[in-house]
């Protein structure tokens, strides 16, 4: 950051001192009456416009802008301090801190905004008309935006989807939640893509959260062996291979099932669990399958492939077509 930008940054100490000093000077000058000539000039009737019940002059416009800018600057400072204070609550979960921070920021800005309108002299009853217009706009044009905003608050309150969770959406999107905003949640997929998913999809659609209560994940391997193999030995080898992998956990322990008798093989299914699914399941699955191949080769256990036997039978002469029989007779006469 350059020296100029750092100097002008609203949260820098020097900028705070200068702005506060300027506001104090304006207040003192106005109280002493030094700004009265400027006020009279900017409030001249020739420069004033009448709009409904309000008189709009350069003085009221300048006063309103200064009040609004000042109040919003102060509210940003207050909300920054509140967010900093809330972030220090390390015993509170990240989602709770974000929810509390957003609620506090929204409340602070609303209070300062209403106070600024009151100081400008705008009747707060006019907000009822504005509220009705906003309600109509939400009902027609901002329905999706409002739905996503409310869905984001629900997600933060329910804690069903949090930052760094491994999730899978109904459309097949899988990845880690990296950010939860007011309108969307950012999901980083395994191939590095960043997908912005509307918050509403997490509420209305089917979502798989692999790390909601724990990070355990199950790995499944299906394999077939040839008829004639020692089935007990096959089962023991499969379980042993899973247990030998460094990421396999003891509870739940690995299990092997005989699924059925196929056309050319006897099919087994091996299940084992890894402690942290966020580290991936394909790596352990690949390692265990390599190990299975080697152990089967050492114990002369065959992994068959589909094959068909073709048997040719002689067709009786009485069942042969007449043309074929005549052809055979012609051959005999020759």
Description:
With 334 residues, the chain is an alpha+beta fold. 51% of the residues lie in helices and 17% in strands. It contains eleven helices and ten strands. The strands form three sheets. Strands 6-5-4-3-7 form a five-stranded antiparallel sheet. A three-stranded antiparallel sheet has the order 8-10-9, covered by helices on one side. The longest helix has 30 residues, at 58-87. The termini are far apart.
Write the layout of secondary structure elements.
Elements: H1 3-8, H2 13-32, H3 36-42, E1 49-51, E2 54-56, H4 58-87, H5 94-120, H6 126-140, H7 143-158, E3 166-169, E4 174-180, E5 184-189, E6 194-198, H8 199-204, E7 207-209, E8 217-225, H9 231-244, E9 255-261, E10 266-274, H10 282-298, H11 322-333
Antiparallel strand pairs: 1-2, 3-4, 3-7, 4-5, 5-6, 8-10, 9-10
Observed structural traits:
single chain, alpha+beta, elongated, disordered N terminus
Counting DSSP E segments of at least 2 residues, the number of strands comes to 10
Oligomer: single chain
Portion of residues in beta strands equals: 15-25%
Largest sheet: 5 strands, antiparallel
Average pLDDT works out at 77
Q: Secondary-structure element sequence?
A: HHHEEHHHHEEEEHEEHEEHH
Low-confidence runs of at least 5 consecutive residues: 1-11
Helix content: 40-55%
Strand order of the largest sheet: 6-5-4-3-7
SS class: alpha+beta
Bulk shape = elongated
Rg, nearest Å: 38 Å
User: Separation of termini?
Assistant: 106 Å
Number of H- or I-type helical stretches: 11
């Amino acid at each position: 950051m350059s020296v100029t930008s750092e100097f002008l940054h609203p949260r820098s100490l020097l900028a705070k001192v200068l702005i506060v000093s300027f506001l104090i000077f304006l207040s003192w000058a106005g109280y002493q009456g030094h700004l009265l000539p400027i006020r009279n000039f900017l409030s001249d009737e020739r420069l004033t416009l009448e709009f409904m019940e309000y008189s709009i002059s350069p003085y009221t416009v300048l006063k309103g802008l200064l009040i609004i800018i000042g109040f919003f600057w102060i509210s940003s400072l207050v909300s920054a301090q509140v967010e900093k204070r809330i972030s220090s609550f390390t015993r509170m979960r990240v989602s709770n801190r974000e929810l509390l921070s957003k609620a506090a920021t929204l409340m602070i800005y609303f209070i300062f905004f209403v106070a600024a309108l009151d100081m400008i002299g705008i009747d707060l009853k006019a907000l009822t008309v504005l509220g009705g217009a906003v309600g109509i706009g939400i009902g027609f044009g901002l329905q999706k935006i409002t739905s996503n905003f409310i869905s984001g608050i629900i997600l933060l309150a329910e804690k069903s989807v949090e930052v760094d969770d491994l999730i899978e959406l109904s459309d097949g999107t899988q990845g880690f939640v990296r950010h939860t905003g007011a309108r969307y949640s950012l999901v980083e997929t395994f191939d590095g893509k960043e997908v912005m998913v509307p918050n509403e999809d997490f509420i209305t659609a089917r979502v798989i959260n692999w790390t909601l209560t724990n990070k355990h994940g199950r790995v499944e391997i299906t394999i077939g062996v040839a008829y004639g193999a020692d089935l007990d030995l096959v089962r023991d080898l499969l379980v042993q291979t899973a247990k030998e992998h460094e990421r396999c956990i003891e509870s739940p322990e690995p299990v092997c099932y005989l699924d059925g008798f196929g056309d050319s093989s006897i099919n087994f299914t091996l299940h084992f669990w890894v402690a942290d699914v966020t580290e991936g399941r394909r790596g352990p699955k690949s390692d265990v399958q390599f190990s299975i191949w080697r152990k089967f080769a050492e114990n002369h256990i065959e992994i068959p492939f589909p094959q068909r036997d073709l048997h040719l039978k002689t067709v009786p002469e009485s069942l042969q077509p007449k043309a074929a029989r005549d052809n055979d007779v012609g051959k005999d006469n020759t």
